[in-house]
Amino acid sequence: MSTLIINIKELLQVRESGIQKVSGKAMQELPSIKNAYLLIADDTIIDFGPMEDAKGITADNTIDATDKIVLPTWCDSHTHIVYAGNREQEFVDRINGLSYEDIAKRGGGILNSAETLQNTSEEDLYKQSIARVKAVMQMGTGAIEIKSGYGLTTEAELKMLRVIKRIKKEFPVKVKATFLGAHAFPKVFKENKQGYIDSIINEMLPQVAKEELAHYVDVFCEKGYFSLEDTEQLLKAAKTYNLTPKIHVNQFNAFGGVALAVKYNALSVDHLEELNNDDIAALKGSNTMPVALPSCSYFLSIPYTPGRQIIDAGLPLALATDYNPGSTPSGNMNFVVSTACIKMKLTPEEAINAATINGAYAMGISNEYGSITKGKKANLIITKSMPSYNYLPYAFGDNHIEQVIINGTCI
What we know:
The protein has 15 helices and 16 strands. By secondary structure, the chain is an alpha/beta fold. Strands 1, 2, 3, 4, 5, 14, 15 and 16 form an 8-stranded mixed beta sheet that branches. It has an 8-stranded parallel beta sheet with strand order 6-7-8-9-10-11-12-13. 53% of the residues are buried.
């Protein structure tokens, strides 16, 4: 099956093959073709260019994109979209003055979600999760990383990862799975933190590897959660199973987590709401992608990742949603892109680069996703009529998407 998109007002993120990510000043550049066409065969981009070169090209389906913009689907490299229930009461608690940390100390937060998930069947968890997956696909997400971490027992963590594996099998969206058993310490290990770490190392990791349930490993490296020493123990153990790190760091405190993640060749370091010069220095020269989660900052009223500082230091930056029930109950990447421009002072070009090619890099998939490149997957957003791509983040409350194509098929 072939599809030809014609009369595209502007085709965004046009790249040659081999470009994995963009950094520093290069993030201000968003290569595009005006008055363009794009040809898809099955699930692959096979040709594109100016309309004057489209003469004689035919296809099974033709889409007229007059006055519309076409760009790659969003690559959301940090989500917890597989969860059970919600935490709406904690939302009200925060309005009434409690902090995220206060709620966690009294047994709320991650522990609340873990208890709910442990008491939810695998089938019910799958049904709740796919409703969210379908919604984010319609909002333009074509690739998504999904973490475990709301199980906190071997059985429940494996249940989450099996649901993620099923989503990967049954939905066209590209899915990468991350094992996050080290998300919090369960109540039963409150006075025996090493006991829980031993459980992750000796029980969870071998089973995750045996069933091939994850591509990556994550740790919530934060004060009150997993220390630098805890994190290093876990990363050493995960390395024996060839699990690449993607680490939660610097959400509330900066105390060396970034440098530790870089030491273990982390694919990404995510959150970074708190950042210092040592963190910037650690990232320079590394292959680790900094990932900002601006809708988390919006929802929790905490500082935004200093994206401007990161980019101005010559580093790359990716954007993701952090979709989860406690700190970001939204998987809307369009809002993330807008919020990065409004609150983090990224330009539209930088934000779109961060949410496409750099998001793909932060998932290890930029060979196939994240740009308009011959041979890459045909994962595309076709917008409604709009004056320019600046309008995407500018009119932040509107739905700008007319069609989403994933693997060459309009969903």
